[in-house]
Amino acid sequence: MTAVDLDDVRIEALFLSDLQGSDQPTPESIRAAVTETVGRLGEGGCAALVAQEFGEHPDCAPTRMKWARGAVRKAYAG
After folding, report:
1. What pLDDT is recorded for position 1?
2. DSSP helix/strand/coil, 15
3. Is 47 exposed, middle or buried (0-12, 13-18, 19+ CB in 10 A)?
4. pLDDT truncated to tens, each residue of the chain (78 aa)?
5. What phi and psi values does residue 23 have, to the nearest 5 degrees?
6. CA-based nearest residue to 72, from 41, 18, 23, 29
7. Cα separation of 66 and 78, whole Å?
8. Which residues contact 55 (CB under 8 A, 6 or more apart)?
């Protein structure tokens, strides 16, 4: 069994959330969305749905993942 990287889980959860980068979400709203999504889907559920999204939407998923990665790093910095 491998250890779960907390940042990866947060990024996946934000990727799956309803938040949009164009809405310029605050760090607080990003953290709330991550908590809600992980609570609803679980760590494994997030990973599975991210994979599904990349399979179904290979044109836009990488852009959203890049946004989610940067947003999580800023929201959880410090």
Report:
1. 44
2. helix
3. middle
4. 455 699 999 999 999 999 999 999 999 999 999 999 999 999 999 999 999 999 999 999 999 999 999 999 999 996
5. -80, -5
6. 29
7. 20
8. none
